[in-house]
Every structure is written in C-alpha cells, then in structure tokens.
Amino acid sequence: MSRAAVxxxxxxxxxxxxxxxxxxxxxLDAGRLRALVDVLAxxxxxxxxxxxxxxxxxxxxxxxxxxxxRPRDLATAQAAASVGQLRLMAAYAEAFAxxxxxxxxxxxxxxxxxxxxxxxxxxxxxDRLLALGVVPVVNENDTVATEExxxxxxxxxxxxxxxxxxxxxxxxxxxxxxxxxxxxxEGAASRIDTVADPAELASVVLGSASRNGVGTxxxxxxxxxxxxxxxxxxPVVVTSTAQAAAALAGEPVGTLFPAHGRxxxxxxxxxxxxxxxxxxVLLDAGAVAAVRERGASLLAAGITGVAGDxxxxxxxxxxxxxxxVVARGLVSxxxxxxxxxxxxxxxxxxxxxxxxxxHRDEMVLVRTRAGA
Length: 372
Hints:
Layout: H1 2-7, E1 11-16, H2 18-21, E2 22-23, E3 27-28, H3 30-45, E4 49-54, H4 57-62, H5 74-97, E5 102-108, H6 110-114, H7 116-131, E6 134-140, H8 155-164, E7 169-174, H9 219-231, E8 236-240, H10 244-248, E9 255-257, H11 266-274, E10 279-283, H12 285-294, E11 303-308, E12 315-319, E13 325-330, E14 363-365
Parallel strand pairs: 1-4, 1-7, 4-6, 5-6, 7-8, 10-12
Antiparallel strand pairs: 2-3, 8-9, 10-11, 12-13, 13-14
Helix pairs in contact: 3-5, 8-9
C-alpha cells in the first residue's frame, strides 16, 4: 500500500547525499548529477512536484581549491562550501534547463528550522516556488553554519523539509541500496524490505559513514530521518541513487518505512522535531499525571522549579521529578517571572498571572524511557 502511495505521490521530496554526487579525488560528477535530474524531470513531466534536498557543496568545492582530503577545520569546510555551492547550483540549473525547468536555491541553517517564525517563512517560500513551477533545491547553508559541518548529513533536514513542504512521500538516496540486517560488504546480509517500527531494527547495527569518504550521513541517520517522516504521515523509501526511478515508481527496491499516524500540524511537528528548548520547567508528580494522562495544560501549582534563561513563547522541556522529559511546549512566562508563581493555585495569583504556564494546544508529549 505504501509503495503505491510513493508511486502516486503528487509532491515528493528527494534527498541525495554527497557520496552519490562527488568524490574526494574528482569533486562533482556531472554525469551522475544529470542522471538524477533526468529522473526528477520525468516526474515533473508526469505532473508531479519535486523538492530536491541536495548535499555535495563541500565535496564539489574541494577539487577546485586543490584540497585532497576532508577538511579538519570549520573555516576550510566553509570555504569549500562557498566555492562548491555555486558550482553545484550551476550544474543543477543547467541540467534542469535541458528539460525546460527552472530551479531555485533554498539555503537553510538550523536556526531557520528551530525558530518558529523562520520555519513558517521557509514553508511559505518552498510552497510559492512550487506554485510557480520552480524546483526548489534545498541545502544546509554550510558557509555560515556555526556548528561542525558534516559531509552530506542532510537526512534529518530532508525529513523536516518533507513536513514543511507538505510532501506526500520522501525518498532518501545514497550509495547504499537499502537497509540490511548486516554489512553486505563484510559477509552475507539480507535486504530489509519494510520497517514499520524501530523495534524491528533493535538487533541491527547501522553504519554511520559513507563508502567514498565524502559523506558522514550513514544509514543510522537515514533510519532516524525515515522514522521522523513516517511518524508525520509521510512514507519513506531508503535506497541508492541508481534505483531512484524504480523507488519513485513504487517498485520493491530499497527499504520502505510506511507512514503511520496522522500528519501533525505544523506547530506540533515543529515543537517535537525542529524546536530547540531554551530551558526546563520542573513538574511534581501530580502535574506529570495531568499532562501525560489527562492532556491538561500546565498550571503554576504543579511546578517545582525552573532551569535556563528563556522568554515567553520560547520552547521549553517539561521534566518530571525523576528527570525524564515528559513534554515540550511553548511557555507563557519569562524564566524570571515563574519563581514567584511556583506551587500557587490559579485563584491565588494576580489576574495577569492566571493564564496557563504551558497551554495544552502549545504542547507535545515526548516519548519516555517507560514508553509513555
């Protein structure tokens, strides 16, 4: 059923890794890039919409700079990304132009997805590009990223983009054709056709590095990203770039992660997967039960402490007395305001402080060690 859903998906997000497009020795492989574009152009010709999440900027920039190995420092990686991103986009623009298509570059940083306003703006931009018939080409903005740059590790970004773009399917492409129950390079291993639950992979050791040295987004990151998208109602296929056409046609290649559950609202999804908590609010046992079991809002009476320096409307973690994170939500007060309200019933508070600390509509439950 889900493979048919992939084949019939109107809006598809396709992520391609650095290892499928570049090598340390030669940089960008224009032939492989054109082959992928031919497949995606075929989808557009059939009336489907495509969002491409492409790694490869750093790998593309290494050869022109005469760098023969993976950069060890952030500045060099950013310099390579600066050179490579221009060449990569020029190659995509030329390849898609041969099919009469226009591309638009969308560079995102973690901040663009962890801040709610930025997330909303990115969503509107992608949606408008598609409405104009443009192919959005998304990549992390490696030239200004402040965290350690990882080659080709855009899998989680692709899962977030799949929800942001309201996609009907996600295909994660690399140099490995599926998830296996072992390492096929080291002995007998069988392809796993479908994974519906993380427990099915409990005994499987997933690799964390690519084969050609330019990608670090190994199978472990792809599986993590696939579950994020699947839980958000988007079916996912993990396979190799060589099998992209077959996967998009619904053929039994790669590994399928069927969609399950309802597609969450943009705010719920952002809170669970894209927000960056600015602090913690500590709950007593009664408040934990109210939030977790009754779906109640969090009131000041059930709070025992505050950690961090957050502002009103910032995302925070709600933590039980055992140290387990119960939920994540948007707090209604600054961190400096809350201490005076702790443990007090609503009727005891001044009128301006009687609102919920975290309203249930601004909250998502978090899976705990106990499985709640």
